[in-house]
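Why do we bother with a discrete structure alphabet at all? Because it lets us treat a fold like text: something you can write down, compare, and reason about line by line. To make this less abstract, here is a complete entry for Phenazine biosynthesis protein PhzA/PhzB. Read it the way you would read a sentence in a foreign language you are learning: slowly, and without expecting to understand everything at once.
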Amino acid sequence: MRLLLDKDIPAWLDLWAEDGVMEFPFAPSGRPGRLEGRAAVAAYMRDYPDHIDLHDFPEVRIHETTDPGTIVVEMRGVGRWVKRGGPFDMTYIAVVSVRDGRFSSYRDYWNPLAVDEPGTDFTRSSTR
């Protein structure tokens, strides 16, 4: 979370296994539902700071599971939308698994309706 707040996407990507998988079970049509491999996650996250200026995670609850390599995280991220300048406030639930100290699986449950507005597609750079 600290790396995302610092907008240090390269360091955040270093936390990923080469074959790590990021999934978005509630992804709407036209948005990726599954990213396979660190390179795919990198391509997806590359322009994230150009779209969301994340300021804080004021609410974080971590739940251990019966699998010592997996946790469930409830979190709330707040900040602002870069293009439209309005507030960003999103609640997430993530199921995160690690292998050899790196993310091997990250299932991100978020509300796609909250970002389903013009100018909020952070999978496309504002500079392209």
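What the structure line is telling us, in plain words: The longest strand covers residues 52-64. Confidence is low (pLDDT under 50) at residues 118-128.
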